[in-house]
Amino acid sequence: MIGIPRPRRVPVALAFVLAGAALAIFLVPRLRSPALPPFVKTADQNVLLITIDTLRADALGSYGGKAVTPNLDRLARHGVRFTFAHAHAVVTLVSHASILTGQYPFQHGVRDNAGFRLPDSAQTLAEMLHAKGLGAGAFVGAFPVNRQFGLAQGFDVYDDVGARDALSADFALPERRAGEVVARAARWIEGQHGKWFAWVHVFDPHAPYAPPPPFDSQYAANPYAGEVAYVDSALGPLIDLARRQPRLTSVIVTGDHGEALGDHGERTHGVFAYEPTLKIPLIVAQVGAGAPAHDADAVSDVPVRHVDIVPTVADLLNFEAPAGLPGRTLLTAQRGEREPRPSYFEAMTPMLKRGWAPLMGIVAGHDKYIDLPLDELYDLSSEPQEAHNLVPDAGDRLRVLTAQMRGLDPVHRLNARENAAGSENPTRYAVWLTEVFFPLR
To answer: Which residues touch 221 (CB under 8 Å, ≥6 apart)?
Structure first.
């Protein structure tokens, strides 16, 4: 068992610093985001959640990316596009556990792809919506989110790559093309007579990048962008199907994490937690019968997070989200906010597999603190490339951020969970199999 250091004590005198920082936060200028477009709140609607694996925040056309993505860009024009959204982990299973539960990794207990399973005690979005009368179907594109990792809770149908596909993958990560995933999801949706919740996960932008024709030749110099363009093309029929529904459909699109593509010396993802792998796109829109009309797309630069998705769906469907969730509804993420809402993140794979120091951090406003033996601090508003560490001159600014993260107590919670469970930890699952399929994802 790898030991994790207990948090450093915060001096009592820091209370005065925190009080002054709180006042400063209150006085900062308001974020300049336009008012969000109107959303219809009703229990009588469908929900379509689309997660695109390994999707950088700057990958889509509407975000300035090099891939041509007309379908997702059109969806963004009819909803709201968040430009400062963050994941809480940089690997697939951990991130999806946060998306589907509305909890941080140290709350739901999944810390890596390998050897963890979402516990049965976790309450998923599918369970919440199923209790409200929605049929629930999941259609996933790759092995890291297969049913054996606990994400199937609450779904009537969980269509994954299957054990046979996994075992025949010849040591490659088992996956299937977005077109196949979408076709299966569309067949299920067309067979629904009542309101429904569909989660559709596509994996194609994940390495190795090998877009199918004609995207392979169109993006020969940038195959990652080719994969993103292909995914947009594959998702087009699904979004069009949602538009034809006789019932209103709320659509949420996000990436589970990004991709470094060589930034900060990282080829793919899973090791560090810099913005190329942590920042993700996030789009919320409504389509179909009764969808509100919008003249132009709305763009919000308010800080938002994956843990905000569950409360947003609850708000749209007029029910109370479970108590104690760290997120809030995205429908209030607009002009007038003054208090930065912190976002916890982590990258635990190097610690669990290689014995490195645990990597944890927090984004508060546009300040980003990375808790490592050599601390890092960046101002993302003035220097989003994270090239200049501000720690040497940070002073009270650093102490406020460390106090905010210690208030979440992620280290103590992880130690308590591991020490209580020991070798029988219920979240550890099938290590021998997952180590084969993802040595470092």
So the answer is: none
